[in-house]
Amino acid sequence: MHLFRIISLTCLVTCFCFVSLKAQDIKPVNFSYSKERTNDDEVLLTIKAAVKPGIKLYAVQQNSPDAVGSSVEFDTAHTKYLNGTLVEKSEPQTEKDAILNAETNYFIDSTVWLQKVKIKANDSILLKGTISYMYKEGDEYKPGEEKFKFFIQPAPTVNSILSSHNNSVENKSLLWIFLAAFAGGLLALLTPCVYSMIPVTVSFFTKRSKTKKEGIRNALYYAVSIIIIFTLLGFLITLIFGPAALNNLATNWIANLLFFALFVVFGISFLGAFDIALPSSWTNKSDSKAGTGSFLGVFFMALTLVLVSFSCTGPIIGNLLVLAAKGSYWGPLTGMFGFSLALALPFALFAFFPSKLNVLGKAGGWLNAVKVTLGFLELALALKFLSNADLVKGWRLLDREVFISLWIVIFVLLGVYLLGKLKFHHDDELPKNDFGVPYLSVPRLMFAITSLAFAVYMVPGLWGAPLKGISAFVPPMGTQDFIARGSQNSIPGNTSSINSALPHPVKYYDRMKMYEPEVVTTYGMVTYFDYDEALAIARKLKKPLMLDFTGINCVNCRKMEGQVWSDPEVMKSLKEDFVIVSLYVDVQNIDLQEHEQYHSKALDKDVETLGDKNADMQVTKFGANSQPYYFFLDANENKLVNEGYGYDPNIKAFINLLDKAKAEYRKRNL
Question: Does the residue 458 lie in any domain?
Fold first, then answer.
């Protein structure tokens, strides 16, 4: 099936390329573009026109006012950058046109147009324009038009540590993916589909094998086969969808809506509404091969387990693929390897120690309780993905109090279920004691208490309480419609008057205020959303500038703000001694002005939105590409601390960082 999809996709791409090339081939004039910086203040733009045989392309420069000609026009906003007029480098041919009764200049092969642009080496610009050309084919005069862009950006300033830093970030990310996936595999072991297979499968190998050594070997084959199958699945995911697509899943609103729907379906499935199962023909075919050969037979037995258990592991795998979205090519491979390793471990361990199989007990109602609990958690997580899409698009469908209300309902229902007061389709009756009375086990009671206590903890959030423990998951305070007076502006450390001298943010504030960090709304701190505006304020007040590279859907950013920034000592220092600018790298609904747009080599894309601008700044100027990340600058935009500070919820370490930045700033301004 995967091979068929790959072949089909290849054929479609090939056909598309062929049609595109053919369409390009029949164009009367094909244009190509290049640019070259000639000195620190000037760039030379080159437009080359390739004319097809039998076509006469009329020149820009004509000797007679009655002659038709082509033109190259730059958008009005960009004409101030032009240095001189357009130069037509090639020598045109001239003829007297009988119909126009005028002498015309034209080209029959190619021509080159040159335009000088005034722009300093440290500036950037996106120049746009239109080529309106006239050509003659046979006896017909025909017009044509083509829009063009020239992306001019500053001289490269990428820090030499960029490569090594990116590698370290990627390694940390892959390690996190592996550990989280390994935990997901351990969780999958508790699902009925997998759990009930462990003693049956291991006992089968140990009893079927002639010697203990052979039984252990076969069980190890079985475990390795599980790892191979799941890791291969991760490779196919990467091959089909590509690393770039996976890398954008976390912030893409359409992808987040799909994940929301996926989690809802999985959650409902776990609650017992239906089972997610692969076609039975797949299972039957793999099962029929299980008796062939040694390793090959064991491999097909493992494949049978994978297919049969899909109804339980499928939802967890789906969640894992969302997690692996940040791991580029290695993300799905690392995630699937960690997941399958955890899933395969029991089969190998119990093969070595078969006498320990009795510790597993019998699969029964408690396993279904685990599955239903996972279903409630799936529904809660689904709301997080819907919130991500809602924040990116600014729909305001799932504001903070709505989100918290839904979570309260979900966890109250989970607590009621664990107390045995709510039943689903596959649930058994509670076990009975010696007197025939149903009773609740102590572990189940503890989980019920935890769920209900968590629901009670969230209740004050409906009136604007910070809820530091889950601040990483709930929407920002800026989306809350009602905040009780006692929940707002209660500044820790009695610093209510501090920072009042800071001017109110202007640029982007009306659009960005809903994304303000919760500590900003709660404690009355001022943050800016535009780098230049914040820098001007910092220079005026003679304070260091703190750059907060963050994201709308950045969970770790919210954790840092809710757990570290809100500390009284940290908050006091931030409010007294710094000007803070929050640079969101994933804001795609705020367009830059036309003269601010440019092309980023680091991002390999056109920078046309505020999020792209901030992301490009973080990579090119500061050599970092993860969030949260903090940098500190003086009035001359020089770093106060050589290294940036990434995610680390250690309050003492963050205080030391602030003290170091303040000390260096005072030292430079003595």
Answer: no
Which string of DSSP letters, residue by residue, matches 261-319? Answer: HHHHHHHHHHTTS------HHHHHHHHHTTTSSSHHHHHHHHHHHHHHTHHHHHHHHHH
Same domain, 129 and 184: no
- Of the chain, the percentage scoring pLDDT greater than 70 comes to 72
Q: What residues pair up with 95 in beta bridges, in sequence order?
A: 104
* 642 vs 633: CA distance, rounded Å: 10
In a domain, 421, yes or no: no
Q: Which residue type sits at 491?
A: I
Q: What share of the chain is helix, strand, coil (3-state, %, to 5)?
A: 55, 15, 30
Residues 86 and 196 in one domain: no
Domain membership flag for residue 466 = no
Domain identity same for 331 and 185: yes
Nearest to 646 by CA among 547, 543, 504: 547
Q: Can you give the residue range of the structural domain that contains 102?
A: 28-152
**∠ CA(608), CA(611), CA(617), 5° rounding?**
90
**What is the spatial distance between Cα 670 and Cα 665, in angstroms, rounded to a whole number?**
9
CA distance 599 to 126: 7
**Residue closest to 620 by CA, chosen among 159, 259, 118:** 159
Exposure string of 403-429, with b = 16+ CB inside 10 Å and e = fewer, is bbebbbebbbbbbebbbbeeeeeebee
Token reading at 605: 């894309």
| CA nearest neighbour of 118 among 199, 43, 204, 188 | 43
The mean pLDDT value for 495-521 works out to 74
Domain boundary among 365, 380, 404: 365
What does the DSSP 8-state code read for residue 593?
A: P
* Verdict on whether the full-model pTM lies above 0.85: no
Q: Which residues contact 172 (CB under 8 A, 6 or more apart)?
A: none
Mode of pairing for the β-strands spanning 527-528 and 93-97 = unpaired
Same domain? For 337 and 230 the reply is yes
- How, if at all, do strands 579-584 and 110-118 pair? unpaired
In a domain, 441, yes or no: no
Q: Which of 152, 184, 218 is the last residue of a domain?
A: 152
For residue range 271-324, what is the model confidence (pLDDT) as tens digits? 877 765 545 554 555 555 554 445 666 677 677 666 656 545 655 665 555 555
- Do 551 and 598 belong together in one domain? yes
**Do 263 and 127 sit in the same domain of this protein?**
no
| Residue 287 token pair | 């099962």
Q: How many domains does the chain have?
A: 3
- Position 624 pLDDT exceeds 50: yes
